[in-house]
Amino acid sequence: MRKLERRKKIALIAHDNKKKDLIEWAIHNKIELSKHSLVATGTTGKLIEEALDQPVVKLLSGPLGGDQQIGAMIATGDIDVVFFFFDPMEAQPHDSDVKALLRLAVAWNLPMACDRSTADFLMTSRFMQEEYEYKLPDYTHYLNRHI
User: Fold this and answer.
1) Active site residues
2) Rounded CA gap, 147 and 144, in Å?
3) What is the DSSP letter of 83?
4) What is the pLDDT of residues 115-128, one digit of tens each?
5) Top-level class of domain 2-143
6) With CB atoms 3.0 to 4.6 Å apart as the test, which of 14, 89, 93, 98 could cross-link to 19 if both were Cys?
């Protein structure tokens, strides 16, 4: 089991064509986001911090390793929720990193929103305002596959 505290560690990521959408969404949810710790990739973090006047831990730009940094934080339990507004119509130079990040969020059973409507549903969930305990996937069979 894994327990998410009331104050969540939220990752915010947006592709270039989706940064405006994420910033508008963040401003709309400014009060709720202020109750949590925010982590973001490079430029997105700078824009969010300016828009919300709230500290954001800024990692590298996504293509320079920021997506992988967030992926590592997911694997170590240092991210609780992911809001990743990605552009499904635009090829990304770091597409393999994007896929790895999305795969890790699913593999570790993390709440994740990739568009504004899903982000709205997730942010307004009662679980965002209280502790939440959930079962981690059992990967024993995977880890023991070569024994």
Assistant:
1) 67
2) 5
3) E
4) 999 999 999 999 99
5) alpha beta
6) 14
